[in-house]
UniProtKB/TrEMBL annotation:
Cited SUPFAM superfamilies: Flagellar hook protein flgE (SSF117143)
Gene name per UniProt: flgG
Lineage, uppermost ranks: Bacteria, Pseudomonadati, Pseudomonadota, Alphaproteobacteria, Hyphomicrobiales
Compartments where located: Bacterial flagellum basal body
Keywords: Bacterial flagellum, Cell projection, Cilium, Flagellum
Subunit structure comment from the entry: The basal body constitutes a major portion of the flagellar organelle and consists of four rings (L,P,S, and M) mounted on a central rod. The rod consists of about 26 subunits of FlgG in the distal portion, and FlgB, FlgC and FlgF are thought to build up the proximal portion of the rod with about 6 subunits each.
Protein name: Flagellar basal-body rod protein FlgG
Length: 261
């Protein structure tokens, strides 16, 4: 029976939905994590009678058609790039982005990756890097004897060096933004890469037009709302149960038909 296959697509769709929700919940404490949602589309229809088709020799037409659907499919799992709350950390190289933009990270193969995670460290050479050791683009190096390192809202990195009274500029952090952030490809480790769907990056200094500003001593938290996720989880579970009930009902109908034969 058609209902068996239709209900099966519904169960598979809700299984995907639960998987995405569980990943959101698992990353509630992940720095700058952006939640995902699942978009669904209905599948092809079998048209038994088209709307507007002739129904008599007098030329009358059917005001509605007869279409039988074949289920549901997963159309996409876009990320929601809304601003997460900023949390104070009191750590010098923790930087949050308030507004639009991504940090530019130089990968070992020369590729530029993008992240909202600003939990940076210094490597053995004093270069500003991610927790995995990937350099922040620009090769910003902090001298070992530098004191009072500051990063202002426009991305300028300054520090006081021995024998000097005025802070010296050590580098400039730049941000990139995309016309379609949902088109970015997730590559793990809180990193994204550009795709044709995302469009090319638009790069500028923080605080410039359309770019966010930087906030030192802070990190951006995940934008996952636990109440919303639990509510969505319950809805997905009930939808799965209803589709499973359709499978049971279709099986009972087939059993009745078999007994008649």
């Amino acid at each position: 029976m058609r209902a068996l296959y239709v209900a099966a697509t519904g169960m598979l769709a809700q299984e995907t939905n639960v998987g995405v929700i569980s990943n959101n919940i698992a990353n509630m404490r992940t720095t700058a994590y952006k939640r995902q949602r699942v978009d669904f589309q209905d599948l092809l229809y079998q048209s038994l009678r088209r709307a507007g088709s002739t129904t008599s020799d007098a030329g009358t037409t059917a005001p509605v058609g007869v279409e039988i659907g074949s289920g549901v499919k997963t159309a996409g799992t876009p990320r929601i790039f809304s601003q997460g709350p900023l949390q104070a950390t009191e750590k010098t190289y923790d930087i949050a982005i308030r507004g639009e933009g991504f940090f530019r990270i130089e990968m070992p193969d020369g590729e530029i990756a993008y992240t909202r995670d600003g939990s940076f460290e210094l490597n053995q050479d004093g270069v500003l890097v991610t927790v995995d050791g990937y350099e922040v683009e620009g090769g910003i190096t902090i001298p070992a004897d530098a004191t009072g390192v500051g990063i202002n809202g426009d991305g300028v990195v300054e520090a006081t060096l021995p024998g000097q009274t005025a802070p010296q500029q050590l580098g400039q952090i730049q941000l990139s933004r995309f016309i379609n952030t949902s088109g970015l490809e997730s590559k793990g480790e809180n990193l994204f890469r550009e795709t044709e769907a995302s469009g090319p990056p638009q790069t500028d200094n923080p605080g410039s037009e359309s770019m966010g500003t930087l906030v030192q001593f802070h990190l951006e938290a995940a934008n996952v709302n636990s109440v919303t996720e639990v509510s969505d989880l319950i809805s997905a579970q009930r939808a799965y149960e209803m589709n499973a009930r359709v499978v049971t009902a279709a099986d009972e109908m087939l059993q009745a038909t078999t007994q008649m034969i």
